[in-house]
Amino acid sequence: MTLDRRRFMQAVGASAAISLLPRGASAGFAPMPSGWRRFELTTSVEIARDGAPVDLWLPVPAVTQENWARAGQADWTTNADRAELVTDPENGARFLHAAWDAGSAPARLDLVSTADAQDRNADLSDTGAAPLSAEDRAYYTAPTALVPTDGIVKATAESIIGDATGDLEKARLIYDWIVLNTARNPETRGCGLGDVASMLEMNNLTGKCADLNTLFVGLARAAGLPARDVYGLRVAPSRFGYKSLGAGSSDVTKAQHCRAEVFLDGIGWTAVDPADVRKVMLEEPPKNLSLDDPKVADVRAGLFGAWEGNWVAYNFAHDVALPGAASGPVSFLMYPEAEIDGAPLDALDPASFAYTITAREIDI
User: Fold this and answer.
1) Which terminus of the chain has fewer CB atoms gathered within 10 Å of its CB, N or C?
2) Listed residue (357, 334, 360, 345) closest to 45, CA to CA
3) 301 closest CA partner among 176, 214, 207, 211
4) Mean pLDDT of 176-198
5) Is it the case that residue 16 has pLDDT exceeding 60?
6) To 10 degrees, what angle do helices 274-283 and 209-222 make?
7) Looking at the domain that runs over 37-116+325-362, which CATH code has it been given?
8) CA angle 241, 188, 205 (to 5 degrees)
9) Contact, 234 vs 243, CB < 8 A?
10) How many C-beta neighbours within 10 Å does residue 43 have?
């Protein structure tokens, strides 16, 4: 798990030089707040019951943050026997829970929700941002079922940050370590599992966004930095021309994407997305780009502190207990979840589930 310290610090130093360029200096990828966009999401579900009872849980945007996200309304039509909008009191996740008693007619539901988003870009100087409360600091540095903060996770975090003392320096070291040492695995199902300790123990630092960005969250928490995953959905193309960083059509059934945030004293909650750097390297035409490719350099600099508002946030929640579920908590709620007579359906196989999600931009 150790990386040659001199080689690592040289690479980090090069990255820091890139990252400290004035925002906007890179024409290729430069998100800046420039106005809110509103998106309408429609999730349509039809499940064959064959005489069995069905439970369904659909994530609904729940994140409202002053500068980059506003959760909107949710409405639905259904033949369910019961349906209600639920907000988890522990983690704030919001979801629609619908239940059908045993019967022969297919379980049908259409959920229409709205959310606003805009580009964000942090001022990485110490602006005197309000400190995080003691309660929130404890919550966002705590371990979760798949994200321990002791053992190999803590040891790895300590080896990365070395004698760094400032929040910004620690966070940047962890971000660059992930960019340099992980890889996107196209064979990973969905967005991955986010099992941080297993990734480190097996020395298999590959996966997708829920693996690589959750690895950032786990290492940051182990280093004493409050951090959180942000689970959501890509809903529009990237206006910077990156095919890999946006939705390719109005069908966003498989466009789920997990991002991350870290809280830096004096700066506040700060966007990070090292997983998308690796996604650009693997997928952006002509594909298999190197770290020094200009397209990669641009997003590597930009995605520490900024991200584009073509994505809607659902929640920050880990270990979500779904009311009425027989199969126990889910590690995160970013996909539709359902059970037929207590047996879970495969959320990562929408065709057999069966569900579709579409997105369109609407006027505010």
Assistant:
1) C
2) 357
3) 176
4) 98
5) no
6) 150
7) 2.60.40.2250
8) 90
9) no
10) 22
Task: Kindly list the domain boundaries of the chain, sorted by start residue.
Answer: 5-27+120-308, 37-116+325-362
Fold of 5-27+120-308: C8orf32 fold (3.10.620)
Q: How far apart are CA 209 and CA 190, in angstroms?
A: 9
8 has a pLDDT exceeding 90: no
Q: How many CA atoms are closer than 13 Å to the CA of 233, on its beta-carbon side?
A: 32
Give the pLDDT mean for 88-100.
Answer: 97
Which contacts qualify for 346-350: CB closer than 8 Å, 24 or more apart?
347/190, 348/189, 348/190, 350/253, 350/254
264 closest CA partner among 145, 158, 173: 173
What would the mean pLDDT of 19-29 be, rounded to a whole number?
46
**pTM greater than the 0.85 cutoff:** yes
Q: Find the mean pLDDT for residues 19-40.
A: 71
Which CA distances in Å does 46 have to 100, 106, 108, 353? Answer: 12, 6, 5, 8
Closest to 345 measured CA to CA, from 316, 361, 322, 362: 322
Decide if 320 contacts 312 (C-beta within 8 A): no
| Number of C-beta neighbours around residue 99 at 10 A | 18
Whether the predicted pLDDT of 15 surpasses 80: no
Model confidence pLDDT, tens digit, residues 32-71: 999 999 999 999 999 999 999 999 999 999 999 999 999 9
- Nearest CA to 271 out of 147, 136, 117, 88 is that of 117
